Amino acid sequence: MSNTQTLTPHVYWAQRHGDVQLRVDLCDAENLDISLQENTLHFKAQGHGAKGDNEYQFTLEFLEPVLPKVVLHKSTQRQVNIKVLKKEEVWWSRLTRQEKKPLFLAPDFDRWQDESDAEKELHEKEEKRINKISVESRIRKDPYLGLKKGYLFMYNLVQFLGFSWIFVNMTVRLFILGQDSFYDTFHTTADMMYFCQMMAVIEIINPLLGLVKTGFFPAMLQVTGRNVILFVILGSLEQMQSKSVVFFVFYLWSTIEIFRYPFYMLACIDTEWKLLTWVRYTIWIPLYPMGVVAEAVAVIQAMPIFDETRLYSLPLPKALGQSLSFSYTLQVYLIIMFLGLFVNFRHLYKQRKRRFRSRKRKAI
After folding, report:
1. pLDDT confidence of 62, banded at 50, 70, 90?
2. Hey, CA dihedral for 277, 283, 285, 288, is it positive or negative?
3. d(CA 42, CA 11)
């Protein structure tokens, strides 16, 4: 049943020199309609207030001019918080133009400040800003910063183009040939994959030179692990090159990298695309373990071939036998691979949490 009477929620207010903060006591607010017109704030929403579940609204005409921009910075199950920016950073003697305070309006004592407290806070902020500028002016700027960013941008661009070529090539062949494309993946894309993975060694060197903040150990684990699969398992055994597992290894690698490298490219020019950031920090969650499983399958399939060909076998004294098969080394490598999965997964997950936590703080 609709109410003909206009219902107003309880509204609590506080101010700083630069803004006015309103807290609307309305639970589970929906259909929010907040606007500023000619220095007057209009609020309308559906929610649970003092009169139960109803539509609530109110209007406030501010004492002094405000910017025509409402910042709805937080809406929770219990309340709606609104920030209105003052046109001039001055202290108001009251909130509304009318001298008589509306019945629904009350001070927000949790956020309330006297003018002297606000002056002190403003002074402290100004001191911090001046100190920060002073410190930054004393720090010697890196004269080679532009060169370093240019080098990192070009490196990530080359890697992006290389892995994109692999990804597109494999995708097109998959649509045209179907499952038959699995068996000649190595012969059609190996040269480009060799190039990209040899280039990837730079990612181990960059942290050592201080060019990137990425840890040395995670980069070494990933690059070394991939190069063992590519050069030792697939590159040295012709029998492995026609197996379908090659398709899955290469496809998973390239899918991850076509999002990772553009993200790093944009970081070099201090730019961020939120969707790309989300994909870069999310897509690895399923793909990275799947890639390690595909690599493990390749290792397991290669073991009997190393036993048969005795390739890379370790010579032993005659009393102990002729040689030690390289497959024993691969068994140890499998254990290291899954330990590396755990270490890298933990590192990447922490990195993801830090990234989105910092973005959330900026949004608030």
Report:
1. very high
2. negative
3. 13
Task: Show the tokens assigned to 269.
Answer: 């020019």
- Angstrom distances, CA of residue 262 to CA of 154, 258, 276, 292: 11, 7, 8, 23
| 294: region left, alpha or beta (phi > 0 left; psi from -120 to 50 alpha) | alpha
Kindly list the catalytic residues: 288, 295
**CB neighbour burial string for 43-76, b if at least 16 within 10 angstroms, e if fewer:** bebbbbbeeeebbbebebebbeebeeebeeeebe
Residue-wise pLDDT for 199-258, tens only, equals: 999 999 998 888 888 778 878 888 999 999 999 999 999 999 999 999 999 999 999 999
By three-state DSSP, how is residue 236 classified?
coil
- Whole-angstrom Cα distance, residue 81 to residue 104? 16
Q: In angstroms, what CA-CA distances link 309 with 76, 232, 292, 304, 306?
A: 67, 14, 25, 9, 5
- pLDDT tens digit string along 111-165? 877 666 666 666 666 677 766 666 555 555 677 888 999 999 999 999 999 999 9
Which residues lie below 8 Å from residue 99, measured CB to CB, with a gap of 6+? none
Classify 328 as helix, strand or coil. helix
Q: Which phi and psi (to 5°) does residue 63 adopt?
A: -65, -45
Cβ neighbours of 293 (radius 10 Å): 16
Q: Which of these, 67, 68, 49, 66, lies nearest to 58 by C-alpha position? A: 49
Nearest to 193 by CA among 224, 220, 231: 231
> Two tokens at 232?
């030792």
In angstroms, the Cα distances linking 101 to 91, 236, 281, 323 are 18, 84, 50, 94
Question: Maximum Cα–Cα distance for the chain, whole Å?
Answer: 105
Going from the C-alpha of 280 to that of each of 135, 163, 179, 294, the distances in angstroms are 34, 15, 28, 21
